[in-house]
Automatic annotation (TrEMBL):
Record carries keyword Transferase: no
Keywords: DNA-binding, Phosphoprotein, Transcription, Transcription regulation
MF-aspect GO terms: DNA binding
Name the record gives this protein: DNA-binding NarL/FixJ family response regulator
PANTHER family: TRANSCRIPTIONAL REGULATORY PROTEIN NARL-RELATED, TWO-COMPONENT RESPONSE REGULATOR
Biological process, per Gene Ontology: phosphorelay signal transduction system; regulation of DNA-templated transcription
Residues covered by the HTH luxR-type domain: 150-215
Every Response regulatory domain range: 4-122
Biological source species: Kutzneria buriramensis
InterPro entries (alphabetical): CheY-like_superfamily, NreC/VraR/RcsB-like_REC, Sig_transdc_resp-reg_receiver, Tscrpt_reg_LuxR_C, WalR-like
Cited SUPFAM superfamilies: CheY-like
Location of 4-aspartylphosphate modifications: D55
């Protein structure tokens, strides 16, 4: 399957580098470039890409606002957002995940890791494995002004589903969850899918945010 990508970054050289990387790799197609968030949203609506690679800090409409607009549009339910940032601690990144972004990477990541990240996000798995992601989510989830606790949010989950959600929040993949709980990967995927349906989550990134906000897990864990 060819992964169709929109690149959103205010620096033309950065976009050119990403385009060159993707177009020289089998299985990727760049269907648009945006210099700001407004253009990114317009291109997402026009082309319905699999993934929008989104810079956070752009003039005019920034990546955070653009992410909210894309993930809130029911017509773009199949469009995933992968946030790229030059900052390893950036408050906007956590807000982007809360708004529906499927994960993020630092811009200095290795090319092979970027390609892998786009594939993972396109497949709906969401990218939450990097240590910096877990650290940043933990940091901002711990701040009262960023927390919206809802003790009843997890009421519909079974004990096993709560256990799986806690492992998702720890950054574990379906395969790692299966190994940890001694179940099959298929069963692990089923649990995660049911949790997302019950909680109305767009993807695993939102599950992580919800796990912290509902206090199912805490940063120190």
């Amino acid at each position: 399957m060819t992964v169709r990508v929109v690149l959103a970054d205010d620096q033309a050289l950065v976009r050119a580098g990403f385009r060159l990387l993707l177009e020289t790799e089998v299985g990727f197609e760049v269907c648009g470039e945006a210099a700001d968030g407004a253009q990114a949203v317009a291109l997402a609506r026009e082309h319905r890409p699999d993934v929008v690679v989104m810079d956070i800090r752009m003039p005019g409409v920034d990546g955070l606002v653009a992410t909210r607009q894309i993930t809130a549009d029911p017509r773009l339910s199949g469009v995933k957002v992968l946030v790229l940032t030059t900052f390893d601690v950036d408050e906007y990144v956590f807000e982007a995940l809360r708004s529906g972004a499927s994960g993020f990477l630092l811009k200095d990541t290795e090319p092979v890791d970027l390609l892998h990240a786009i594939r993972v996000v396109a497949a709906g798995e969401a990218l939450l494995a990097p240590t910096v992601t877990r650290r940043l989510i933990a940091e901002f989830a711990a701040r009262p002004e960023h927390r919206r606790p809802d003790p009843s949010a997890l009421r519909e989950l079974t004990d096993r589903e709560r256990e799986v959600l806690a492992l998702v929040a720890g950054g574990l993949s379906n395969e790692e969850i299966a190994e940890h709980l001694v179940i099959s990967p298929a069963t692990s995927r089923t649990h995660v899918s049911r949790i997302m349906t019950k909680l109305g989550a767009r993807d695993r990134a939102q599950l992580v945010v919800l796990a912290y906000e509902s206090k199912l897990v805490t940063p120190r864990e």
